């Protein structure tokens, strides 16, 4: 295969960014089909890319014979149907999180893929490809910190869209720390509690922001996360790992530090996740394209990772309402995937 021919479904903020990424920065792949429920938007994007067509129906886009692989950046509620169509057509798919929006449909997708006996789904938990997270993970795996004990995380957004409600802070934002915890510690989260501090007076009426999440992992490790999505400042994601033999910090935004106007010094913080995790998205896509072209199993986050994250988030939303720790109940993995 000379070039992987990709259909990108959903060309909102993230999908459009992925189209630009594949077109300008990813080698060995090009976008041949775009789809969006806003057909004008899809057509405008297709018109700017040589050899690219807009297809109005997402399932037709997946089935199109020219399409080798699919990127899903469509709204979460549409994912189950689209993922099942990708499996049916045997097409590798890189699916932006969430895998699906509820536990039952996520599990159905995991089972459908397992029945094929072949990995076709990768979930877009991009932080696993960020240089700093990768470095932290390799130090951890090399035993540099001894036994890891605690993870402190901060996840701040300057603002969120008007439709963002308190449960989306769990499902859409905190979900990244759910995946980071499972990635770094290689174990499942067994309970989650969401604490509701006094809400930001500047947040939209009724939005519980910030939230403090506490996870407990299977071996008893502690993780706490401050998620605060209406800071009005910039995009900040920090993680501190504390272990038996020391600790490490990532996400300090230490780029260029400038000394300027009388008595001041400082740098810049990225405005959003597109810039903060730009390198991670690029690496994620290049690795996925290379694996699909080589016909080897993709090694990024799997459908199981998507299902596990959905299950933790469901427990998180329950805890958001009750304030109590909620147990996370995963099905037995070996019974489905043989893993
Ligand atoms: C958004 O959907 C993301 O995935 C970002 O990474 C996250 O920081 C943000 O809070 C979400 O809304």
Automatic annotation (TrEMBL):
Stretches assigned to the Gfo/Idh/MocA-like oxidoreductase C-terminal domain: 137-328
Organism, scientific name: Mycolicibacterium bacteremicum (Mycobacterium bacteremicum)
Family: Belongs to the Gfo/Idh/MocA family.
Single Gene Ontology MF annotation: inositol 2-dehydrogenase (NAD+) activity
Function: Involved in the oxidation of myo-inositol (MI) to 2-keto-myo-inositol (2KMI or 2-inosose).
Pfam family, one: GFO_IDH_MocA
GO BP terms in the entry: inositol catabolic process
Keyword Oxidoreductase: yes
Top EC class of this enzyme: oxidoreductase
Catalytic activity: myo-inositol + NAD(+) = scyllo-inosose + NADH + H(+)
Span of domain Gfo/Idh/MocA-like oxidoreductase N-terminal: 4-124
Highest taxon above the source species: Bacteria
Keywords carried by this UniProt record: NAD, Oxidoreductase
This enzyme's EC code(s): 1.1.1.18
InterPro entries per the UniProt record, alphabetical: Gfo-Idh-MocA_inositol_DH, Gfo/Idh/MocA-like_OxRdtase_C, Gfo/Idh/MocA-like_OxRdtase_N, MI/DCI_dehydrogenase, NAD(P)-bd_dom_sf
Name of the protein this chain belongs to: Inositol 2-dehydrogenase
Signal peptide: none
Complexes and interactors: Homotetramer.
């Amino acid at each position: 295969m000379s070039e992987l021919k990709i259909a990108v479904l959903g060309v909102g903020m993230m999908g459009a960014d992925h189209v630009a990424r594949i077109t300008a920065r990813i080698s060995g792949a090009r976008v041949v089909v775009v789809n969006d429920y806003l057909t004008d938007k899809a057509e405008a994007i297709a018109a700017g890319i040589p050899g690219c067509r807009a297809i109005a129906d997402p399932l037709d886009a997946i089935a199109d014979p020219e399409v080798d692989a699919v990127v899903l950046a469509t709204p979460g509620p549409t994912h189950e149907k689209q993922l099942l169509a990708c499996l049916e057509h045997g097409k590798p798919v890189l699916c932006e999180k969430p895998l699906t929006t509820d536990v039952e449909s996520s599990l159905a997708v995991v089972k459908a893929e397992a029945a094929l006996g072949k990995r076709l789904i990768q979930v877009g938990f991009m932080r696993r490809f960020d240089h700093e997270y990768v470095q932290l993970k390799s130090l951890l795996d090399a035993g540099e910190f001894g036994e890891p004990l605690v993870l402190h995380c901060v996840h701040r957004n300057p603002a969120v869209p008007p439709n963002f409600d308190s449960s989306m802070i769990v499902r859409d934002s905190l979900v990244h720390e759910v995946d980071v915890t499972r990635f770094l510690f290689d174990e499942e989260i067994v309970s989650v509690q969401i604490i509701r501090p006094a809400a930001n007076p500047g947040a939209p009426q009724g939005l519980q922001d910030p939230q403090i999440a506490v996870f407990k992992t299977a071996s008893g490790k502690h993780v706490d996360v401050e998620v605060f999505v209406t800071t009005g400042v910039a995009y900040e994601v920090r993680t501190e790992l504390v272990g038996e033999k020391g600790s490490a910090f990532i996400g300090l935004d230490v780029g260029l530090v400038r000394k300027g106007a009388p008595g001041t010094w400082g740098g810049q913080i990225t405005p959003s996740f597109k810039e903060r995790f730009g390198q991670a998205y690029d690496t994620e896509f290049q690795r996925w394209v290379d694996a699909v072209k080589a016909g080897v199993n993709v090694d990024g986050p799997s459908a199981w990772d998507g299902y596990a994250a959905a299950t933790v988030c469901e427990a998180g939303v329950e805890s958001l309402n009750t304030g109590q720790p909620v147990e996370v109940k995963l099905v037995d993995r070996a019974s489905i995937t043989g893993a």
